[in-house]
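Sanity check

After download, print the first record. It should look like this:
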Amino acid sequence: MSHDGPIAVTEADPRRWKALGVLGLIQFMLVLDITVVNVALPRIQDDLHFTQSGLAWVVNGYVLMAGGLLLLGGRLADILGRRRVFLLGVGIFAIASATCGAAVDPAMLVVSRFLQGAGEAFAAPASLGLIALLFPDPLERVKALGLWGGIAGLGGTSGTVISGLLVNYVSWRWIFFVNLPVAAFALLAVPRLVSESRMVRDAHRPDYAGAVTGTAGLVAVVDGLLQAASHPWGSWHVLLPLLGGLTLLAVTVRIEMVSASPLIPLNFFKNRTRVVTNFVTLFFSSAFFSYFFLLTLFEQQILHYSAIRSGLSYLPFGLTIGAGIGIGTALMPKIGVKPLLAAGFFICAGGLALTSAVSVDAQYWSHIFPGMVVLGLGAGLTFPAIGNAGLHEVTEQDSSLASGVQSAMQQIGGALGLSVLVTLGLRHAATQVAHGTSRGLALTDGYVLSYRFGAGLLVIGGVLVLTLLEHVAAQTRSPLVEAAPLPQGATLPVDAELRVQID
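Expected structure tokens:
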């Protein structure tokens, strides 16, 4: 079956705004679970007897699976049906949330977090695909995607506050149990509000082998880096997972090269702006994720903040990151992506440098607050620039692929960076303790070193942007997705495509 020209736009689905509300609520829940555990980490560590390095897997398990399987989830949604895969992802996420809350030992919690990440990898890309079809009118779609993104951002910035309230007044287990009624509501509401749709792009099966080897390779590499926190670099505890992981990643590249339907076609990497942007995203995510993880431990273990006080301490970050996003969106059409992205990186580096001035007797307003607001502003400037450059000159065929790659880089970069920076700080602290330094002072010195290392990564990223990134004159336009909601069980022609207009 062939199709020439855009798909005709039919009358918009009258249920679309109710459906957007449900999809946005699920996205809020998915993003929330990336940050909500941070404030609860000390309580989780005490109750389940985690080691310091093992505690990082509570965060890493989630983001690694989400990042590693995100592209596969999007491809499955296209072929099997977006609504079906969305419901599957939400179901997996709900079951994993229940076992997270009921965890009796570290292994049970970490495995459950891996399953939660897999649930997001299926639900998130399917959700975006559903929104594209629910809102065929470009003006409505701008508003819908803005609301969806705003709800997701609110989940990211409010996670620490919600976590603090639940941990302080109920139990850390409820940061997971609270997901269950939200997921149940979505499982009941979405089939009534959203019709099924699918797009068959080719006759080949998704590249399951590449997804499995790639995710396993990343998990093994991170495990090796975390093992270095408590074992010498030359020990088998470190070398075995590191070398095994690198081998699996090399196998993944080979699989992608010969696959008839690769998750990421190799010609995707011919565009220099997209390649540079995705690469420096690893630097940004490394520092960004690590900031929350390490600062939460510092506030609660060194400064002895309560969970609620630690959660509320992040409120200025949410306000400044919102201001930064607004400023960045307004400036991008005037100055272009390159200077905005570089400025965002350098400002974030300044925020981490300010935070590295903390000490065992640090005061919030003089030692934590300044770095927090500077980092929030810089991160806000960075987000719209990364999003635009990551979609630079995308073709009609790979517009969704480009978004998937960008999301995957953010999550994988966060996991890899967190493992490196945690290892760096803990090894430094262990050396200090061995030489007679008190534990509190040694840990603080380790956190300071990690922050300075993160600031250095951001400076390097900013320099790479100035040196390698092409000048992209960005226009804040909406994707022009020329598709209409399809009836139950309908399929799009094989050559039907998503059209994106990018300057």
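If your output differs, re-run the checksum step. Summary of this record's structure: The radius of gyration is 22 Å.
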